[in-house]
Design goal:
The protein is mainly beta. It has 5 helices and 16 strands. It has one domain: Porin (Beta Barrel), CATH 2.40.160.10.
Length: 418
Amino acid sequence: MVRTGSTVKVSGAIYRSLLCAMLYAFHPALHAIDNFSFSGFGSLGMGKINRDDVKFMGYDDSWSFRSDTMLGLQAQADISDRWSATTQIVSRGFNFDDTSDFEPTLEWLFASYQVSPEARIRFGRMRTPLYLLSESLEVGYSYPWVRPPVDTYTFLLTSLSNFNGVDLSTNVDFANSDLDIQVFAGASQGKYIDFDLDFYALFGANFKYHWNSLTLRYGVTIAKTDASSASLDPIIDAYQQFAPLDPIFAELADSHSTEGAWFQYHGLGLQWDYGHWSLIAEQYATLGPNEDFANDSYGGYISLSRQIGRFTPYAVIGYYKNVFSDDISTLITQSEAIIPPGNIPQLDGLRKIDQQVASQFDEDGRTYTLGLRYELFTQAALKLEVEYFDSNALMSGDDLDQKPDETVLTSIVIDVVF
């Protein structure tokens, strides 16, 4: 399979979104409505990598203002003492699905019912709580980096960023600490590059413990998943042609998609603020069924920053690993025992291509990041970041396994909230 970056053109959608922001800024009458609030966030970013043979988030070796640029608008209305409604629309300069760049996308649309001062129920479209920073995932002003560390906030899970369903959250107070508990259930679907993903049953729980300036988090999500890609159809069709020779070729064809497989996601997080220092660390594991077109993936990072007046220098070290199911390779080896190589040249070529496709999904890499954040004023920050990748994991392009594996990404961004 060929993994490709995205070619982008600014559409009229971004201008319509900007118009909404301008209407907000120049119509103070909106603020006079007691039961309605309006807010927003945005990022204007630019970046480039040091190579012309791969891409990262659409970035290549020329400066681009697209991939890290976004605008988000959020509205909340208090319907009664207990009921409220929230909606959020985001327009991004880069997407991993087939959404047009800068096309406004509905991210949140839910109703909330406050059962008690400690407990709340929500219904609708919400953020899936996969990460420590899930609720502020795209509000760049809320964290020190240009973007959340990609080793943990991995692109593979972008299609699971939101879900449609219900959640219940509550808070438990202890002597000098408290615990937030969230349980949720629903469904989600999306697209990652050329893969169609359907999470038609998902369940999870999220636990966040606060003690003074320390926050600890554990979250688990379990999803019943269908996954398929049109780019694999030629391989599937080719194996089906050999199915009359032996049932194993029908198995090989079926192994290039996933139906009704249960995937688990586990996430750990820590944030500790001590004086002017801040330590943030996360680690995750996604565990698949180890059959058909499935994978296990792992990632983590540790970030250290220190505020010095308006400046906040930071450093991040992260790792990422994706382990593809060996089901396809095992079936290919078994098929070679039935029809040895050299008997049918077309079959030999098919099996070789398929092995190459499967091997592209085995990735292992580390990232090293240095950056500097500068507070322009109360609700705006300027960030400069240099990120070094020691492998082609998370990159896009043709024949990645044949290319050198060092990549440097330089990014500059201005983050605002309003």
